[in-house]
Amino acid sequence: MEKCIFCEIANHNLPANIVFEDNDVMAFADINPATKGHLLVIPKRHFINIFDVDDAALNRILQLAKRIARIMPETVGCSGINLFHSAGEVAWQEVMHFHLHIIPRYNRKELQRPFVPHSTDRDELKEIALALNKKIKEGFCNG
Ligand code: AMP
Ligand code: ZN
Fold first, then answer.
1. Is 64 part of any domain?
2. Cβ of 123 less than 6 Å from ligand 1
3. Residue 123 belongs to some domain of the structure
4. Is residue 112 in a domain?
Protein backbone atom coordinates (compact mmCIF):
# COMPACT_ATOMS: atom_id res chain seq x y z
CA MET A 1 0.00 0.00 0.00
CA GLU A 2 1.17 3.52 -0.78
CA LYS A 3 2.45 5.49 2.21
CA CYS A 4 0.36 8.35 3.55
CA ILE A 5 2.39 11.57 3.26
CA PHE A 6 0.85 13.15 6.35
CA CYS A 7 1.56 10.02 8.44
CA GLU A 8 5.13 10.30 7.17
CA ILE A 9 5.27 13.96 8.25
CA ALA A 10 3.70 13.09 11.64
CA ASN A 11 6.37 10.40 12.12
CA HIS A 12 9.20 12.73 11.04
CA ASN A 13 9.99 10.58 8.02
CA LEU A 14 9.28 13.49 5.67
CA PRO A 15 10.39 17.07 6.26
CA ALA A 16 7.87 19.79 7.07
CA ASN A 17 7.93 23.28 8.52
CA ILE A 18 6.43 22.33 11.85
CA VAL A 19 4.68 25.06 13.83
CA PHE A 20 3.56 22.90 16.74
CA GLU A 21 3.36 19.26 17.74
CA ASP A 22 2.57 17.13 20.73
CA ASN A 23 1.71 13.43 21.03
CA ASP A 24 -1.64 13.81 19.27
CA VAL A 25 -1.61 16.71 16.83
CA MET A 26 0.68 18.66 14.55
CA ALA A 27 0.49 21.96 12.66
CA PHE A 28 2.78 22.61 9.71
CA ALA A 29 3.08 24.89 6.69
CA ASP A 30 1.14 23.93 3.58
CA ILE A 31 3.71 23.31 0.85
CA ASN A 32 1.60 25.24 -1.70
CA PRO A 33 0.16 28.06 0.39
CA ALA A 34 -3.08 29.65 -0.84
CA THR A 35 -2.05 32.78 1.08
CA LYS A 36 0.97 33.75 3.16
CA GLY A 37 1.05 31.63 6.33
CA HIS A 38 -1.33 28.86 5.16
CA LEU A 39 -1.06 25.97 7.65
CA LEU A 40 -2.48 22.49 8.06
CA VAL A 41 -3.51 20.99 11.39
CA ILE A 42 -3.57 17.19 11.51
CA PRO A 43 -4.09 14.42 14.03
CA LYS A 44 -0.98 12.23 14.25
CA ARG A 45 -3.19 9.14 14.07
CA HIS A 46 -4.44 8.38 10.59
CA PHE A 47 -8.07 9.38 10.07
CA ILE A 48 -9.31 10.05 6.55
CA ASN A 49 -11.61 13.03 7.11
CA ILE A 50 -14.59 14.30 9.16
CA PHE A 51 -16.49 11.10 8.35
CA ASP A 52 -14.19 8.93 10.43
CA VAL A 53 -12.21 11.17 12.80
CA ASP A 54 -12.92 10.48 16.46
CA ASP A 55 -14.21 13.14 18.84
CA ALA A 56 -11.07 13.31 20.97
CA ALA A 57 -8.83 13.91 17.95
CA LEU A 58 -11.25 16.44 16.47
CA ASN A 59 -11.40 18.36 19.73
CA ARG A 60 -7.62 18.59 19.85
CA ILE A 61 -7.46 19.72 16.22
CA LEU A 62 -10.03 22.47 16.76
CA GLN A 63 -8.39 23.58 19.99
CA LEU A 64 -5.02 23.90 18.27
CA ALA A 65 -6.57 25.65 15.25
CA LYS A 66 -8.20 28.19 17.56
CA ARG A 67 -4.96 28.90 19.39
CA ILE A 68 -2.99 29.31 16.19
CA ALA A 69 -5.72 31.44 14.59
CA ARG A 70 -5.50 33.87 17.49
CA ILE A 71 -1.75 34.46 17.07
CA MET A 72 -1.91 34.78 13.28
CA PRO A 73 -2.83 38.50 13.00
CA GLU A 74 0.08 39.62 15.14
CA THR A 75 2.48 37.10 13.54
CA VAL A 76 1.74 37.30 9.80
CA GLY A 77 -0.32 40.49 9.66
CA CYS A 78 -3.56 38.97 8.42
CA SER A 79 -6.95 40.48 9.21
CA GLY A 80 -9.01 37.26 9.14
CA ILE A 81 -8.82 33.47 8.82
CA ASN A 82 -10.62 30.79 6.85
CA LEU A 83 -10.81 27.31 8.37
CA PHE A 84 -11.33 24.80 5.61
CA HIS A 85 -11.80 21.04 5.43
CA SER A 86 -12.50 18.89 2.40
CA ALA A 87 -14.00 15.42 2.91
CA GLY A 88 -14.00 13.15 -0.11
CA GLU A 89 -12.62 13.45 -3.62
CA VAL A 90 -15.86 15.04 -4.79
CA ALA A 91 -15.20 17.83 -2.28
CA TRP A 92 -11.60 18.33 -3.56
CA GLN A 93 -9.86 16.28 -0.84
CA GLU A 94 -6.49 15.27 -2.25
CA VAL A 95 -4.60 14.00 0.79
CA MET A 96 -6.62 11.27 2.49
CA HIS A 97 -5.38 12.02 6.02
CA PHE A 98 -7.57 14.40 8.04
CA HIS A 99 -6.36 17.98 7.82
CA LEU A 100 -7.83 21.33 8.67
CA HIS A 101 -6.56 24.24 6.59
CA ILE A 102 -5.85 27.49 8.40
CA ILE A 103 -5.77 30.16 5.70
CA PRO A 104 -4.85 33.67 6.80
CA ARG A 105 -6.76 36.37 4.93
CA TYR A 106 -5.41 39.75 3.97
CA ASN A 107 -8.12 41.00 1.63
CA ARG A 108 -11.47 39.86 0.23
CA LYS A 109 -10.22 39.50 -3.35
CA GLU A 110 -7.19 37.21 -2.96
CA LEU A 111 -9.32 34.02 -3.01
CA GLN A 112 -12.57 33.09 -4.70
CA ARG A 113 -15.43 32.28 -2.35
CA PRO A 114 -15.90 28.54 -2.98
CA PHE A 115 -19.69 28.54 -2.91
CA VAL A 116 -22.53 30.41 -4.54
CA PRO A 117 -26.21 29.65 -3.86
CA HIS A 118 -27.25 26.57 -5.82
CA SER A 119 -30.95 27.16 -5.34
CA THR A 120 -33.47 29.51 -3.83
CA ASP A 121 -35.91 26.69 -3.21
CA ARG A 122 -37.27 27.31 0.32
CA ASP A 123 -39.11 23.94 0.33
CA GLU A 124 -35.81 22.15 -0.20
CA LEU A 125 -34.27 23.94 2.81
CA LYS A 126 -37.21 22.96 4.97
CA GLU A 127 -37.27 19.35 3.75
CA ILE A 128 -33.56 18.79 4.41
CA ALA A 129 -33.61 20.45 7.83
CA LEU A 130 -36.58 18.29 8.84
CA ALA A 131 -34.94 15.09 7.55
CA LEU A 132 -31.71 15.82 9.46
CA ASN A 133 -33.58 16.82 12.60
CA LYS A 134 -35.50 13.52 12.44
CA LYS A 135 -32.26 11.51 12.19
CA ILE A 136 -30.76 13.44 15.11
CA LYS A 137 -33.82 12.72 17.24
CA GLU A 138 -33.48 9.03 16.36
CA GLY A 139 -29.95 9.20 17.78
CA PHE A 140 -28.02 8.77 14.52
CA CYS A 141 -25.63 11.54 15.50
CA ASN A 142 -24.13 9.88 18.55
CA GLY A 143 -20.50 8.81 18.63
P1 AMP B 1 -6.73 18.97 0.29
O2 AMP B 1 -7.07 19.38 -1.12
O3 AMP B 1 -7.65 19.58 1.32
O4 AMP B 1 -6.60 17.47 0.44
O5 AMP B 1 -5.35 19.65 0.58
C6 AMP B 1 -4.13 18.99 0.63
C7 AMP B 1 -3.11 20.06 0.95
O8 AMP B 1 -1.89 19.42 1.32
C9 AMP B 1 -2.79 20.98 -0.23
O10 AMP B 1 -3.05 22.33 0.14
C11 AMP B 1 -1.30 20.73 -0.49
O12 AMP B 1 -0.61 21.89 -0.86
C13 AMP B 1 -0.83 20.19 0.86
N14 AMP B 1 0.34 19.32 0.81
C15 AMP B 1 0.52 18.25 0.02
N16 AMP B 1 1.71 17.65 0.29
C17 AMP B 1 2.28 18.38 1.29
C18 AMP B 1 3.51 18.28 2.00
N19 AMP B 1 4.40 17.31 1.76
N20 AMP B 1 3.76 19.20 2.96
C21 AMP B 1 2.88 20.18 3.21
N22 AMP B 1 1.71 20.32 2.58
C23 AMP B 1 1.41 19.44 1.62
ZN1 ZN C 1 -2.04 9.20 7.28
1. yes
2. no
3. no
4. yes
Ligand nearest to the CA of 97: 2
Q: What is the CATH number of the domain that holds 55?
A: 3.30.428.10
C-alpha pair distances (Å), 119 with each of 74, 105, 116, 122, 123? 39, 28, 9, 8, 10
| pLDDT in single tens digits along all 143 residues of the chain | 689 999 999 999 999 999 999 999 999 999 999 999 999 999 999 999 999 999 999 999 999 999 999 999 999 999 999 999 999 999 999 999 999 999 999 999 999 988 888 888 899 999 999 999 999 999 876 55
Residue 75's domain comprises 5-118
Mutate to test the pocket of ligand 1, among 32, 42, 102 (most ligand atoms within 8 A of CB): 32
Give the dihedral sign, CA 108/114/118/123: negative
Reduced to 3 states (helix: H, G, I; strand: E, B; else coil), residue 83 is strand
Say if 97 falls within a structural domain. yes
